[in-house]
Amino acid sequence: MSAENTLPPPETRGVWYHCGSANLLPDQGAVYCGPMATYCAWHRPMAIYRADANRSYFVFGSAGNRPTISYYDHSAGTWAYPVVIGENPDGDAHRNPTLLIDEEGYLYMFWGAHGHESFVHRSVRPHDISEWEGRAALEETGATYPQPWMLREGELFVSYRKAPGWRCRFSTDGALTWSDPVDIAAFGVADNARGASEFAIYGSTVAEEGPHPRKLHFAFSRLGGGTPEEVATKHLWGRRYNLYYTRSDDGGRTWRRSDGTQYDLPTGEEQAEKLYDSGTRGVWIKDIQLDLDGNPMILFLEGEVETFHAWWKVARQTPDGWEIADVTESDHMYDAGALMVFARDDIRMWGASGDNQPHEDGGEIEEFTSTGGGATWSLTRRLTEGSQYSHNHVKPIMGHRDGPGDVRAIWSYGDSRKPPETDDVRLYYIGDGMDRGREIPFPPGPEED
Prior knowledge:
It is a single chain. The protein is mostly beta strands. Helices cover about 0% and strands about 45% of the residues. Strands 3, 4, 5, 6 and 7 form a five-stranded antiparallel β-sheet that branches. It has a four-stranded antiparallel β-sheet with strand order 8-9-10-11, with no helix packed on it. It is globular and about 55 Å long. The model is unreliable at about 190-195 (pLDDT under 50).
């Protein structure tokens, strides 16, 4: 029996992916690579707790990069066998799925985009992952990173990257049709060594909970810029610049600065509210969450593209304006993490800041805690330790504070080198009362009974 045949079924494992061939460090085969089942920061939400079912649903890219869904049943203490709902044409983890659950419990999966058609599927029955039907695509081509939320009663809101910037659409009929697009931000065109190209925006959104309409907060950065000579050098590979912010108070119709000033859309770079200037370094956004008072907190890495060295920071909105706090450092700007808001005096960052595969993205998951609302941070424990390969791309269960707490977050684990010793990727989770993260124990599939 071959080694491949001894592995668990592909739908219970994750996608292994690599990207980038410029500015490689010694003995490195790609700029970033490895376990990408829950990649990336711009795929959100990927996991949601629903109190009416007492389940935490989550989506991921399974082996072969197929859009896949499962859930944890908190009442039964069991994991559902994963269900694959489609096929992607390649192993590009930028096509990973995102998840929305409407008021009636219907589940929606958005997947397959990254410059191509953006597929949308809805569950045939509420809270049932076994059967799915196709809905209308957001775009025929060019859509990337769809991020769906319920901001108004009965209405689906999805924002996503689409040249020349970031846009959104609405649906009031369960994604059978979509409204005309609204362009939120567009940063123009850059002349560089490769010719004219549009700036790409990288953004992460989070919606508040509670009554409609719900506020949506949007943190973003941009790719591109520099002189032709600078862009022609390998040191500008994939660099995102600066940290910008906007929000919508009315379900995505209008967009404002943090002081409430309304933008004329689409927002240009000169008008956008800049929270952080990265200078000659880059900014990689990792997560955005809300504190218990509804104020946004943004986890981002400031990266040095020549060395990949990264500084972890949290931008938080306070009554006195935005403040930036230092958290830790690591050896790669594609190390990823999540903010976990448990209480006003208990905010944690769970991130792959432990460097067990040097200069590769991912590592050991460490916990940093702030008891002062995010102003200062200290290392409190390690959620993984002694791992052979790398953990990365921590995704919090949205709404986890309303649940029993036995599952708080999920992430990916595998070899972050290229070529890898193995492209076997596993999914991990952690919950209350656990000293260390554990591999998700999916049950045997029907063919294994």
